[in-house]
Automatic annotation (TrEMBL):
It comes from Actinomortierella ambigua. Belongs to the sirtuin family. Class I subfamily. This is NAD-dependent protein lipoamidase sirtuin-4. InterPro entries: DHS-like_NAD/FAD-binding_dom, NAD-dep_sirtuin_deacylases, Sirtuin, Sirtuin_cat_small_dom_sf, Ssirtuin_cat_dom. Zn(2+) binds at residues 203, 206, 299, 302. Residues 251-273 have a biased composition (Basic and acidic residues). Residues 23-416 form the Deacetylase sirtuin-type domain.
Amino acid sequence: MRMRLSLRSLTNLVDPHHSRSVHIPFPTAVQQLADFIRDADGRLVVLTGAGVSTDSNIPDYRGPQGTYTLNPEYQPVFYQAFRDSNAARHRYWARSFLGFPPVVRAKPNPTHYGIAALQTGNISLQDGTAKAAASLAVESPSLRPPPSPVRGNAASAAAAAAAAAARRRHVQSLITQNVDGLHQKAGAHDVIELHGSLHRVHCMKCGHKEDRAEFQHVLAGLNPEWDQLAKELSAGQLSSRMNADGDVQLDHKHDHQADGGDDGKGDNQERPRVAAQDSSSSASTRNSLDYRYFKYPNCRQCGVGHYKPSVVYFGENIPPATKERATDAVRDASALLVMGTSLATYSAYRLVAQAKEQGIPIAMVNLGATRGDPMANLVLDESSSAIMKAVCVELGLGSIPGEIRPLQRILNVVGS
């Protein structure tokens, strides 16, 4: 006999100061999360962080393979430095030029597919540009194809299928801190991108927007040697490590460089040069590329402004419209599910605090402790991909596509 926990009973039964050292058996965790989702009555808001994209080979910041874990000296890009420093822009665009292709190639994992299925009521097997186009069509009614005429039994079957899908829709809004676009690739729509997107750039002076993939072609034309280096990285001829914000570090056994300053001064400072070695030769470097001479264009609309990726840098404010959308989504929710984030940034933490103040139930799914654990009604120390795959089966959505990497349970390292 199965006992079902309602959101009301869950609030009373689960200790908000629950310790992650007490591990909940996986089948129990699946059942509890499935019941949490059911009881939201289609008004669930999901908030995701970098931890949900690690199974897509995009690193988080604080996990066991995270950017800060592998490189404690890592310095993220600050808005003021990017805006004011020509050297900072050269350095960023050189690294981003090498780091963007892996983001484009990344595929959604079961967490992305599962959340999309919970939002749409259907499992999508599509991926890549075809799915992105379909997602745009959902967001823009003018892009939708006209409905094909149906008659008789076909019409009844279509209506029944639509009704069944509606019953399987559990997610009302999706908010993500991620900038990789994988939720949209998996078929999710109306995604609130709290920290922007790597797939767009804009002029800091006039606001003109460009597609990041098209901008990559422009950068390649201006920097043919770097373009060759990017191709060798893609072919696996050189080693690299991608960071969570879409750039890379190059590992070279003769000339490893830390992620430090731009001036090249001092023994512990980064020299603004990438020494790349062809894997077929261990004796000499194929080429030496200098960050300072990486070329990037001015805005082609105003002619003077500098392009910036449309992501929220450290030291930069979230656009008011985005902040308002996220606040409204939580305000209209009956429950909040948080996945793959330690809530280290206030922009995400405040949404959990808002949900707590509203008195709606909160569930946390993350490998490692989070700032939101004391406010949560349900805390699960699980891989988001593994539990989402099982939960979708439990909710009658069927088998979710995507790969699950071997579980790396962590104790003292907080997930991103």
